[in-house]
Amino acid sequence: MNWKRIVARTISEVSAWRKETRGFRPGFRILLYHAVGTRLNYDPYGISIQPDLFERYITILAEARWLRVVDLLGGQNRNSRLQVAVTFDDGYKDNLTVAAPILLKHKIPFAVFVTSSFVQGGSSLYLDRAELLELAALPGVTIGSHGATHLPLAKCDDKALWQELDGSRRSLEDMLGKSVTVVAYPHGSVNRRVRDVARRAGYTLGVCSRFDINGNSRDPLLLCRTEVVAADSERIFRQKLEGAWDWRRWRSRDPALD
User: Fold this and answer.
1) Backbone angles phi, psi at 182, to 5 degrees
2) What is d(CA 4, CA 7) in angstroms, rounded to the nearest whole number?
3) pLDDT on residue 218
């Protein structure tokens, strides 16, 4: 990999969008969170964020006049301005008890992607069925699938892949009593084969873990996200919103190419 070429290209792109947008990169940016306040026994990536820091992030979103917060399904005209959606993976209980009150206070919609077996497993970490129903009933909340058992989907054979995608969707729909049409691929493990099966299973929108913003031409079943972690200061959070960290897309291959 030619790092000098990548750095030069990134600098060129940054200069172009700053000139055009006066500081931020336009498009549809999907923020990726996991836990808020839950103490995890193993958290090498810092996916559990302290509630006070999370609220500061959300306050920035609510007060920023240079962006528009939208529902995950509402990102339209992505090249005209910066639009931001909030998502959570795995379905931790704190998404209901800690994150939801903060987001509702600021009138910010959000999506939670849950692994169906986690809901049914009786874990103290993850939402159970009653809690999932309570969360789904809140205004501005979208519930999506995060697989049946949280397997890396690109490594599954055809039978297991179908069960992970179609089985989890059907299970969640049975619990919720309404359609589930959005999916987040566990471990960010996705390629065009997985995308095609997701479409066949009935999903209309899919999000991965590749770090980037989305333009109008981006495949709706392979949308990129911007992960926020516990080590991010408010300054870094603003930088991620503006696009200054989008160079990280070069650290992983675009699943649209596989």
Assistant:
1) -125, 145
2) 5
3) 94
